[in-house]
# Entry
Amino acid sequence: MDWSIQEIAKIAGTTSRTLRHYDDIGLLKPSRTGHNGYRYYDGPALVQLQRILLLRELGLGLPAIAEVLDRETDTVKALSSHLEWLAQEQDRLTRQIASVRQTIDTMKGDGKYMAQNMFDGFDHTQYKDEVEERWGKDAYAASDSWWRGMSADEKQQWKDRVQKLGTDWISAAQSGISPDSAEAQDLAQRHVEWLRGIPGTPTAAPGGDVKGYVIGLGEMYVADPRFAANYGGEPGATFVRDALRVYAETNL
Amino acid sequence: MDWSIQEIAKIAGTTSRTLRHYDDIGLLKPSRTGHNGYRYYDGPALVQLQRILLLRELGLGLPAIAEVLDRETDTVKALSSHLEWLAQEQDRLTRQIASVRQTIDTMKGDGKYMAQNMFDGFDHTQYKDEVEERWGKDAYAASDSWWRGMSADEKQQWKDRVQKLGTDWISAAQSGISPDSAEAQDLAQRHVEWLRGIPGTPTAAPGGDVKGYVIGLGEMYVADPRFAANYGGEPGATFVRDALRVYAETNL
DNA sequence: CCTTGACCTTGACGTAACGTCAACCTCTAC
DNA sequence: GTAGAGGTTGACGTTACGTCAAGGTCAAGG
# Structure
């Protein structure tokens, strides 16, 4: 009283290939093997298969299923820890969806490619992962709570200040002056002072590597079009970078 | 003014292996190659890399990213269709989490392994996918809405009826009578009549393959411990299967 | 000049769970 | 005898790299 591989596959609602795979990895051996090598499965094997398929539908990996079946691991326990993983995945997905939405809105919104200013973007949790990766776990939390704590008026003031700094940089770059000129260095100083107002960055904390940070930031302005856009793209961003580097080398 | 592979990797926050991979698949070629085979990257290459990494963080696949960069595909469009996929994934995850929770509750709840009756389980959307796969898309919707439309009293009546049928089967199996005896065949008839009351199954629709359905159902009772439990496990389920088969062969 | 160590290169395997040929054998039915 | 249906064992493909392995390149120091 047993079934061939295709028969049992149809009964259980799966494929013969899957059965062979389970045989290969030792998850479910056929109950009998013909002299011709054919695989045959009996009732108990079908029961095992049903259990395997049920757990698989719940998203468990085959090794985890094997552990449940072989080593008498508590099924409830296995499912519970699996549930945690699922919850984390759901969380990650939710945040990713928010990021994608945000990005789409931003790109549709202002026409220019991601031409928001740096920290306007940050506060929108848009660059959350990026900030965390580049400047540490605390950076995002600090700058986020700082931004949230501001009133609408204060936020506007801040934006205006950023805006003015940007336009001043652009006009300076377009005027043809050198990055190490006095005017450019004045702007660089304003820029660094502005940076010092942002919590979570090395410029705000005493003892941080301000010099390296400022130089690296300049490189990023050039490298990343989202930031370069704040300075009129090229060659504005390059001008800012060079000016910041000179300022950092001599004053920090 | 260019960087080595490790330098640009550090700047962009990725690894040299990733860069080599992107080179292999043609996603990002180095701007220059030394006579020794070393890869070097310049500013524009870094910009491209930043864009790639941004899109990757949003979950886009590398082929999709390549399409956006190479063939000037609209980024917003690509992200939008990606968003749909993400939403579907989120949906799937949510339903899977519900299933896992349900399963855990069930297994903790009654101690016995999934020993709920068939349609009590169905109505809990627990076996949604399974019902749909085995009996078609409409089956689940039909039996679900049918169950939801019942009052609490009616549901209880139905459960009692199922319960009584189950216990009658069990006592019949234990009494040692044959599956083709008159009493067993009476039970089989009751069973089929009961099935006819469930919408979405072939037994309820005129012209359905009732015979094949009943026989297959009997096999499933034996094969699947969740159903076998309704008949006291073994040898109860086997008795039911045999009785149903005889009944189906002679009367349907 | 030689060594050391850091950095570079090109393979090539491993990952999760099978789908999908390919080449070849087996059984039943006409 | 010959289809035709169904079985077998490889082996590659899938996603985006991580991780050795074996060996060439380069700058600095003895």
Chain A is about 70% helix and 5% strand.
